[in-house]
Amino acid sequence: EIGMTQSPATLTVSPGERATLSCGASQRVSSNLAWYQQKPGQAPRLVIYGASTRATGIPARFSGSGSGTEFTLTISSLQSEDFAVYYCQQYYDWPVTFGQGTRLEIK
Amino acid sequence: EMQLVQSGGGLVQPGGSLRLSCAGSGLTFSNYWMQWLRQVPGKGLVWVSRINGDGTKRFYADSVKGRFTVSRDNAKDTLYLQMNSLRAEDTAVYYCAREAYSSGWYGDWGQGTLVTVSS
Predict the structure, then answer these.
(1) What span, in angstroms and rounded, lies between the C-alpha atoms of B95 and B113?
(2) What is the enclosing helix (H) or strand (E) of A102?
(3) In chain A, what residues touch B105 (CB-CB under 8 Å)?
(4) Residue A43 is nearest to which of B44, B104, B110, comparing CB atoms?
(5) Residue A106 region, left (φ>0) first, then alpha (ψ -120 to 50), else beta?
(6) Which terminal CB of chain A, N or C, has fewer other CB atoms within 10 Å?
């Protein structure tokens, strides 16, 4: 099973600033990496798939990068609605596995 | 607009059974692999089970193999998870999700339903 590690566990950023979230895989997953946003009491929402492709309806301020074992989700100018928990997921091999999440908090 | 609406869940004693349902609308349900995932409140997401479009291929996480059964009724556009021999460690919010293009990523999710296994 491929292990996924996210850092930091909590990121505190001011609205309007840039946020950079990291995700690492225990083995290479090519570009088979997705990012999800989850707000309290809600289901996860797909943000990025294929490591860098924005999902339908996701604003251009969200961007994903990376390949192999190291990935990054960048939110260029944080809006109030962006504060949530973000999970990365590899789908290179079964079972699919998720990171433990990064909580993005308002400063 | 595609929607997945879940039902079922609740409180059950250890060793008991429960069935979850996930009704799809706004999509050709039979075209898609569907999944169940779960999340202990405050923790991360864990994949539980996967079923193909016609229900002939089914896969399970080791932790639930032999106890949980995934099925679907495409005439009703509904996915099911039959959970037997439930344990305290099965306590979680359960989500159904649509797998996009048989890829392994999930474009659409149900709202989630809480299953609590406790005496």
Answers:
(1) 7
(2) strand A102-106
(3) 34, 46, 49, 89, 91
(4) B110
(5) beta
(6) C
